[in-house]
Each structure stands twice: as structure tokens, then as C-alpha cells.
Design brief:
The chain has one domain. It is built from two helices and no strands. The mean pLDDT is 81. Keywords: Membrane, Transmembrane, Transmembrane helix.
Length: 56
């Protein structure tokens, strides 16, 4: 019984250690997501502009 309780407590402690840093991970992920998505949008716009006859 004691070993089971201690393992549950240690699991909660490990999870709390990760959950504590979750906002930082989310902030970094969202920042990188915006960089990647804006890069994809720029790539798409550049390809659209290349296909337009006005800029050739």
C-alpha cells in the first residue's frame, strides 16, 4: 500500500513539474506556429505574384 501511494505521489509530482512549465511551452509553440504560418503565407503570396503576368 505504501509503495503504491508513494508512486502515485511521485507521478503527481513529476506531472506537476511538467504542468508548471506548460504556459512557457504553449507560448513558445504559439510563437513558432505564427512564424511558420506567416512564412507559409508569404511563400503562397510570392508564388501567386510569380504567376501574375504583370510582374514578369
Amino acid at each position: 500500500m505504501d509503495t503504491a501511494n508513494s508512486s502515485i505521489v511521485s507521478t503527481i509530482a513529476i506531472n506537476w513539474k511538467y504542468v508548471k512549465f506548460l504556459p512557457i511551452y504553449l507560448t513558445v509553440y504559439i510563437r513558432h506556429y505564427w512564424i511558420i504560418s506567416s512564412g507559409l503565407i508569404m511563400f503562397f503570396v510570392v508564388n501567386m505574384v510569380k504567376h501574375l503576368k504583370w510582374f514578369e
